[in-house]
Specification:
12 strands, alpha/beta, two-stranded antiparallel ribbon, 44% helix, binds iron/sulfur cluster, binds zinc ion, eight-stranded mixed β-sheet, Rossmann fold
Amino acid sequence: MGYKCKLCPSKAVIYMRQHRLALCSGCYVQWFAKQTQRSISEMRMLRRDERVLVAVSGGKDSLSLWYVLSELGYDAEGLYIDLGISDLGYSERSKTYAMHLADKLMRPLHIVSVSKSVGKAIPELVRRSDRSPCSLCGLIKRYIMNRFAIEGGFDVLATGHNLDDEAATLLSNVLHWQVGYLARQSPILMERDGFVRRIKPFYRFTEKETALYALLNGIAYIEDECPYSVDATTIFLKGILNQLEERMPGTKLQFYNNFLAHARELFEREQAPKVQLRQCSICSMPTAECVCAFCRAIERVGGTFVGLNVVRYEPKQCGASSQSTKAAMTAEGDDNGEQCRLA
Ligand code: SF4
Ligand code: ZN
């Protein structure tokens, strides 16, 4: 690469054009942790005395997030949602990566099985549904993440959305003027009745940056995309943003940061008169309707929600074994048009 680290005499492993910053491996790992803490502090995402549940998919972003939060001293446990996607062993392999990190961090990992919770795995639910795979899967995952976080007594739910994800979602929301989504697109969504606080501490990092952090820390992750993720639109939008970035370094960060600084609040204010939430007549989770979106979707595809089926995986080094628990534990969720990132 030819660059020298800006902070020490070593050779740089990365040059971040948007920051005009070249760093060696040691300095990069420290910089990355500091930037994560900076995002957390500036947005008041998480306090030291709070319990955080990290939604891990087995991919680089979510696993790096769990790792760095643990490094920073936060009380972070993992949640893996087993979607039951058997193509190329996708779900099984992803789960294995999540379990490896649990072992490395010596932290518990909670594994929720979709098929055991609603009677059918994602592929069958998708086959029976007229919704797009990601729309149905996203709804189910948001419900599970929120419900598990609430029932498990967690204060905060963290996801690994990065700058590329957020900028692509923002571009899509702007292109279609999805004002409701724009009002809710934020690195932090505060808790309210029945909904846990949701945070995205990686919103300033690019995909390349999180991948390098994973690599330098020996975090193994699944590199394959979910077989359903062939979302041409998101990939296309990311490609356009990358072209802009190439010509004008810093565009992605400015686009998203300036939205947060100057525009998001305006959309939020416009959307202010909120509908009154009530309890879902089936599962008791908050909803604007009699029956929540999750229960309606599950009913429509012939599933039955019997409560979250949760297995608590204890890290191997502790010598403990897995222990099965069942919790009648749901997120109608705040879809903000975001792309999959529990995956
Ligand atoms: Fe679910 Fe993500 Fe796969 Fe879509 S890409 S089906 S949201 S895991
Ligand atoms: Zn419900």
